[in-house]
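Shall we go through a protein fold together, starting from nothing but its sequence? Label the sequence line and the structure token line clearly, so we can match residues to local backbone shapes. Would you write everything just below, so we can both look at the same thing?
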Amino acid sequence: MACQDNGVACMSSGEGLAGERPLRADARRNIEKVMEAAAEAFARDGLDVPLEDIARSAGVRAGTIYNRFGGREGLLDAVVADVAAGWLRAVIDRATGQGTAWGRFTAFVEGMCEEQAADPVFNDVFSRRYPDAPDLRAVCDQSLAFGAELIRDAQSCGTLRPGFSAGDLARIFSVNAYLVRDRPAGDDGWRRTLQFTLDGLRAQPDSTSE
């Protein structure tokens, strides 16, 4: 069973990794310590934190991370993927609560971009900085699949310009990831860029019906 600590997931101490025989108690403790240390380090320093620092905080050798998780991508999948899926679900829930196809589309885009600006870990995950982490990649694919549904709905209602695609949506998120990364405190220029983008995408900016 998975639990959560410091905003990222951690494995309960009684579990081994999939496909492995039951682990000794000391090995289980080492896995738990690594995941707890990784959760804290990722939340504090971002997903690029050196694995050696995580190992040092956990009181284990760096080789333990490679032996048990295969490297950074495996550790990210174990610690971050479930939480990233929860973040995405929250954005989707807010978007689906809107009453129009255009409202759902813009709420989703704005929600994703706002979370990118608010949380560097969210930004790293959904800008696909770690494509070799399969569980994280699956969450990113889910976000674009949902976005594609919203695009089709808004285009069928005539409120989103034809020709816009899920690939274009991914590029919006990529541009926003760059704009919000390492920006000065209080700099919300990304909001202006996003608003201009959405204004340009609306096929019927003066219409209130769908």
In short: DSSP finds ten helices and two strands in the chain. The first helix runs from residue 25 to 45.
